[in-house]
Each structure stands twice: as structure tokens, then as C-alpha cells.
Amino acid sequence: xxxxxxxxxxxxxxxxxxxxxxxxxxxxxxxxxxxxxxxxxxxxxxxxxxxxxxxxxxxxxxxxxxxxxxxxxxxxxxxxxxxxxxxxxxxxxxxxxxxxxxxxxxxxxxxxxxxxxxxxxxxxxxxxxxxxxxxxxxxxxxxxxxxxxxxxxxxxxxxxxxxxxxxxxxxxxxxxxxxxxxxxxxxxxxxxxxxxxxxxxxxxxxxxxxxxxxxxxxxxxxxxxxxxxxxxxxxxxxxxxxxxxxxxxxxxxxxxxxxxxxxxxxxxxxxxxxxxxxxxxxxxxxxxxxxxxxxxxxxxxxxxxxxxxxxxxxxxxxxxxxxxxxxxxxxxxxxxxxxxxxxxxxxxxxxxxxxxxxxxxxxx
Length: 364
What we know:
The chain is α/β, with parallel strands linked by helices. Helices cover 28% and strands 16% of the residues. The strands form 4 sheets. An 8-stranded parallel β-barrel has the order 3-4-5-10-11-12-13-14. A two-stranded antiparallel sheet has the order 1-2.
């Protein structure tokens, strides 16, 4: 029988035994004061899924200022680095490969996380969304527009987080530049009305992102850095698509050809954007011709669709989210054509092992 493209090795900057990637997913299990990833929860969770060609962890905040969700693990303190060391060791003991996603939510936060201070963003524009706070869901507020000093400090935060990731034993990092969070807030006109060097032109709106990327590659090799984007995000966290949106991402993707990255990770639209002016409905097919490196795609793929997009040459790797929650042995299930277990969405973000480390392997 013909080998599934998903199950073939991949070697181009990043070397993987298969092309089934575990997508980054917030799970809110760092239920401790220090926001540390622990051996018995995160360690076991990722170890169980180590047969993925690559694991990309949940978003891990690069500073206290970066947080916007309860119980998400950080990568900015010594205790957090020590916690992640145990996680990476467990994955490596199973011959797995694991990247950490570095995260700053920007305005998708709340003063409850910051001792009453405002969250920060490109401009002082309320996304009119909700933030998942220690006191439940609360409406977002108008953020503080970042000063130049704030931007420079945040560049250093990401650089330090990248260095911490190396110390923690990660095989690489993914820069979360997607889904309406901080970098995305700089990219889009709906959230960036700045008139300085970080607003207005496409070059200016993307400057912060490239400054961070350039800073990080001084502490970790470029081929160990991945980046993630969601070009046609529309209607989530106050983000909209306009005439500049897709050209901005085209500019970014083309410019990234000058780098030697592990991969570019793109998401297909989260919602139906067929009738949204200027939106692109088929992200992989649109951006594949623009990028010469490794392209990863994410967006409700099943086994057959994943194999098809690889076979068509529109992507090199396929990232799976929710199927990995309930199927720790997803790769084996694809290989043996086994039925997938259903996930329980009510336990996506709840504390403890229920709905986290208690999903059985098919062999069990």
C-alpha cells in the first residue's frame, strides 16, 4: 500500500520522522502561583504525544505583561525554565521533538492580570472582546498604546524568552504572530493607527515583528525558529480584513525568504470568509508560491485532507489541534486507519488531568 505523505520523514532545516505536527493549544493547566509547567501534568501530556513529527507547545508568555489567560505557563522566570526542562526531557526520552510557542497577547488581556494596569497594544483601541481572567470572563478594556521604550523592552523580553527556551532544552521556538495577539495587532489597520515608525506603511507595521525575529536569532539559530500567522482572521478579537491585510502578509512571507527559518506556520480562516472583501479563502495555495522554505498549514484537517494537501505540494507539514487532545497516539491511528476518539470541549481549559492526560491510547 502506498505510504501516506503525512507519515513520510521531512528534512529541510528541520528534520522530522513524520509530517504530523501537534499544533499549539492553550490548555490552562499551569494552576500554580509561579505559572510553571509541571512534570506530572505538562510533562506527561507532551510525553504521551511525542510520536508527533513535531510538538509545538501551548503559548508561553514571555513576561508578566504578556499574559492574558488564566493558568498559562510562562518562560520568563527561573522556576518556569526549570519546569520546562522536565517537560522537554520527557519528550526527548521518547525521541520526540518539541518547540515552545512564545506569546504576548497584547490587548487581549485585562487589568486583573496586571495589578490594575492596562494591557498594551499597538494603539489604544479596544478589541471589544472578552478576556478569561481569574474572576471569569470580563470585557476587554482600551489598552495603552506602546511607547518606543515599551517596544524595545518587549523585543528584549522575546530575546530573553528565546534564550530561556534554549536553556530549558527545547529543540526550537515558534513566534506567535497570529490570531489577533500582539504582533497581529501591529500588522492590521483596525488595531494600529500609529503615525511613528511602527505604523502607517506595511514596512512600519511589520517592523516590530522583524526586530524581535532579528533579536531572537542572536541567541538561537534561525533554523530553530518558526513563525505563525493567520492572514484571513476576521471577526475574532476585533480583527478585520481590509485592502492592506493580505498585502501585509505577502510582504512578510516574501521577506522571510531571506531568513533560514525552521518553518512558516499558516492558519486557514477560522470562519467562513467567502463573502469578506479582500480575504483569501485558501491560505496554503495562496502563500505557497511566495515562500521557498518549509510551509506548515493548520485548519481542521483530517487524515485524508492532510495527505491531499501534502500530495498537492501546497504545504510541507500539517498541524493538528483538537485531534491531538483526545488521541495522544494520533500518528499511529493515522498509520493504522483507526477510528479517532472524540474530545470533550468542556475540559479544554479546566484544571487537572481530566480531559488532559487521561485519554487512552488505541492499544489500551
